[in-house]
Amino acid sequence: MIKSEKINHQLQRLVETCDWRFAVGLRVRFNHPTLLYQTYPAAWVEFYAQNGLLFFDPTVRWAMTHTGTITWAELEPGDTAGVFRQAREYGLAHGIAVSVGDGPMRSMGFFTHANRPITKEETAVALDVVKTLHDLTDGVPDLPAERIAALQALGDGLSQDSA
Q1: Prediction pTM value
Q2: Residues 18-55, buried b or exposed e (16+ Cβ, 10 A)?
Q3: What does the pLDDT look like over 122-151, one tens digit per residue?
Q4: Which terminal residue of the chain has fewer beta carbons within 10 Å of its beta carbon, N or C?
């Protein structure tokens, strides 16, 4: 059984850990997350979608084929589309990617700071929370649409745009 309060607790853990911005996609199938929680600036989300950056984003490419964590700095040499350069224009300068799960059913998280790299301690929290959320959402893709919508709504209060 999916435990909404436990999912909410893990999301709050992410918000309370530090002042980072993040996007966490859970139970990704066919390059689409069943649940998506994010605190990225709305302007970046719109720009990213309008320009189809998902198809060029080195963090997404890495997360779809690997598990564990990696820094944006490690991925930047392969960023031929300039996704990281464009992200910096929106205050997303230093980041990590986290990926857990297997082939057709992964969960992933992308975490950023404007002014400093993500610390090892923050990386450990990010990995732990994404793993826990992945485990807590086992079976979510098979739920009725209204139940998925209710779980998605848990992220409505996460926005840090006013921060």
Answers
A1: 0.91
A2: eebbbbbbbbbeeeebbbebbbbbeebeeebeeeebee
A3: 999 999 999 999 999 998 888 888 888 888
A4: N
